[in-house]
Amino acid sequence: MKTIKYISLILILLSISCCVNQKQKDEKEIKNTIKEYWKAVKTNDLQKCNSLIYDNETFFGVIQGEFYFLHDNYNKVNPNDILLKNIKIKDTVVMFAENKQKYVQYTIKKENDTTYLKKPLVITFMFYKPVGFNKIYNPVILENHIGWDK
Length: 150
Description:
Elements: H1 2-42, H2 46-51, H3 60-72, H4 74-77, E1 89-91, E2 102-108, E3 121-127, E4 142-143
Antiparallel strand pairs: 1-2, 2-3, 3-4
């Protein structure tokens, strides 16, 4: 009887350990993908950026437009590569766990907008396990970018 309890305890501990290790691997892959994306934007490498987005052929125009906006405004959006040091991964809130996605979101306020009339630029990277955390799942990552740079 004691042997069964010990075996059960060992199996429970092993399963918890595997879940923690998998979560760490998933988060590392997401962080690497985001770092590669920002590196591609900074170095003006549209092809690399495009390869990091799932189903990129369908949404090439959107990807290209957002890429050039971010490249042109890189120093305003990501001064001193601050966004690379501040990657916080969150889970989406959904009813069923199998539909849960992960995301990283940045909110960048316009620095010289003393009237607070400009909405902040919101950058959201969505990830979905079935397509892999090495691909950004949603090709539309920018919100409130039209006119933000003016």
